[in-house]
UniProtKB/TrEMBL annotation:
Residues 3-148 form the General stress protein FMN-binding split barrel domain. Coiled coil: none annotated. It holds the Pfam family Pyrid_ox_like. It comes from Roseimaritima multifibrata. InterPro entries: Split_barrel_FMN-bd, Stress-Dev_Protein, YdaG_split_barrel_FMN-bd. This is Pyridoxamine 5'-phosphate oxidase.
Length: 161
């Protein structure tokens, strides 16, 4: 499996991600977001309120970071965020659970979509057989007194475009 495919495959394991934006004063701001959709190319879609701080931050600086973490899988993405006002796409992605934040439902005028187009990503996968392989390599490295060799099945940097 190619590194790009592996990265997207790992992203499928997550239903929540940390979206990190740049604030007006140059700080980083992260917040958890429900993943509304993930495309085969690795584009991520989120639903948000158009009046939120993150939207204002993305208008000024569209560069964002996404992190996803589980007990043995980790993904980091950097890319460009764009705001998308598309009622058909909102209808396609709509989840009734979002009514907590949008009591008027999918036709709530405050809903907008965030599409993140990844430019670069990294992953660490220590799940399943990869985790066993890592433990063996880590044990060997410990005994030999040097870091384990990098294995793209477990860890890789990927250029997405």
């Amino acid at each position: 499996m190619e590194s790009h495919e592996k990265l997207v495959s790992l992203m499928e394991h997550f239903d929540t991600a940390m979206l990190v934006t740049n604030t007006v004063d140059g700080k980083l701001e992260g917040r958890p977001m429900a993943v509304a959709d993930l495309t085969d190319s690795g584009e991520l879609w989120f639903v948000t309120d158009r009046h939120s701080g993150k939207v204002a931050e993305m208008v000024l600086d569209s560069e964002v970071a996404i992190t996803m973490q589980g007990s043995s899988r980790f993904v980091s993405i950097t890319g460009k965020a764009s705001l998308v006002d598309d009622p058909a796409k909102i209808n396609e992605l709509w989840s009734e659970a979002w009514k907590v934040w949008f009591p008027k439902g999918k036709n709530d005028p405050s809903i907008t979509l965030i599409k993140v187009t990844p430019e670069r990503g990294e992953y660490w996968d220590n799940s399943g057989f990869s985790g066993i392989q890592y433990m063996i390599k880590a044990g060997k490295a410990y005994i030999q007194g040097k870091p384990p060799e990098k294995d793209e099945a477990m860890n890789a940097s990927v250029t997405m475009q």
